[in-house]
Amino acid sequence: xxxxxxxxxxxxxxxxxxxxxxxxxxxxxxxxxxxxxxxxxxxxxxxxxxxxxxxxxxxxxxxxxxxxxxxxxxxxxxxxxxxxxxxxxxxxxxxxxxxxxxxxxxxxxxxxxxxxxxxxxxxxxxxxxxxxxxxxxxxxxxxxxxxxxxxxxxxxxxxxxxxxxxxxxxxxxxxxxxxxxxxxxxxxxxxxxxxxxxxxxxxxxxxxxxxxxxxxxxxxxxxxxxxxxxxxxxxxxxxxxxxxxxxxxxxxxxxxxxxxxxx
Length: 263
Description:
This protein is mostly helical and 263 residues long. It has helices spanning 2-7, 14-57, 76-82, 86-104, 110-128, 131-134, 137-160, 168-189, 192-228, 230-259; strands at residues 58-59, 67-69, 72-74. It has a 3-stranded antiparallel beta sheet with strand order 1-3-2. Strand 2 and strand 3 (72-74) form a beta hairpin. Helix 2 (14-57) packs across helix 9 (192-228). It is globular, with a radius of gyration of 21 Å. It is a multi-pass membrane protein. One of its GO terms (cellular component) is plasma membrane. The chain crosses the membrane at residues 35-57, 77-103, 115-134, 140-159, 171-190, 196-215, 236-259.
């Protein structure tokens, strides 16, 4: 990375500075790779949890215990997960886990933080399992790959661009708050037009956040964690993976609202 030569100064002169910059560059690549690996494992856990819950919740056999919902028959487990008040517990549990991880990350051992991230990913998968009841499986797979390609391009842009994206942060967070408020209002209005607007704006906001977060994580390492190392850098990699994971999941669900084919 050429910007390291400009921004990283060594007290031992230019030759040592080039060596230090090369070391930081190698460390940065390893750090970002850890973040993407954590995020990828989290997404895999989410997908497996969502698919597992769906398969256990739906049956083709109309047994006396099965409950018909539309075209599907739900097992007692499926009724508890998708119809009973228990569904709210699993819908809100991931949000609670985000606050737990974010608030306690500096006091947690990296291994504990990893376990909490895996648990969060599984809970998110359980909460997302209902998409298999709403959208065709083909469209879910298609939107997932569209999301992956979009996310990859945006994250690559955030990593490689020389443009300072810092100023975007406050604007994007304002947009995020607006999306949350509009989504809460639409729970009562059930307006398809408002849902469409929220989905479109949400895609733009989380696209921007993906690039912004990637550049932020890169700069955090260069100007902080490169010299810290150890548990501090490992915890930072886990929180970085959580940030990018949330961007990916939100992009996926919003694009699914726009592009998914309903079953």
